[in-house]
Amino acid sequence: MPRLDPRALLLLPVLMLAGCGDDPDPAPAPSPAVVAPSAAPSADASEAPSEAEPSDELEPSSEYVEEDKDPLPDPGDLPGEAQDSLDQALGIELGALEGAPPAEAKKHRATLDKLPQSPTQVLAALKDYRWFSPEAKELYDQAVSAG
Asked: How many CA atoms lie within 13 A of 45 on its CB side?
């Protein structure tokens, strides 16, 4: 009878759990956290909630709360209604330019692309602008009257 190497005897339980390579997709060995607890838990373990049991304590939540806007508007800001009307007017005008003759659309877009950053300056810059869309012109007029 052949003699067994004592080191092989130590590996025998591991090889049996792993399936000795017969399974093409072997399941990973269970981690210590997955092993069932002993029948007699220690006193410390019964006091602390386990990971599997939900805790009755509320955990602090990190919730983002948006602060109120700056009470003082930046110079050049428009009231909300005026800003909304101006934004809508520019959006409608750009949409209307899609159907305009290419040469005219290019000229109008060039003017709109050069508008300043400040909303009040935008209103002033568009004072003499020839609007392609009558609806956009009406919204611009609303922005001027609300601003």
From this structure: 8
- 17, 79, 147 from 84: Cα distances, Å: 69, 9, 11
Q: Which residue has the tokens 């399974």?
A: 23
Dig out the tokens for 61 from the structure: 């939540």
Q: What is the pLDDT of residue 100?
A: 92
The structure's pTM equals 0.48
* Segment 10-43, tens digit of pLDDT: 665 655 665 555 555 556 665 555 545 555 555 5
Q: How many CB atoms lie within 10 A of CB 74?
A: 8
Which helix H or strand E contains 77, and what residues bound it? none
Q: Tokens 């049991």 appear where?
A: 53
Exposed (0-12), middle (13-18) or buried (19+): which is 140, by Cβ within 10 Å? Answer: buried
131 neighbors 93 (Cβ within 8 angstroms): yes
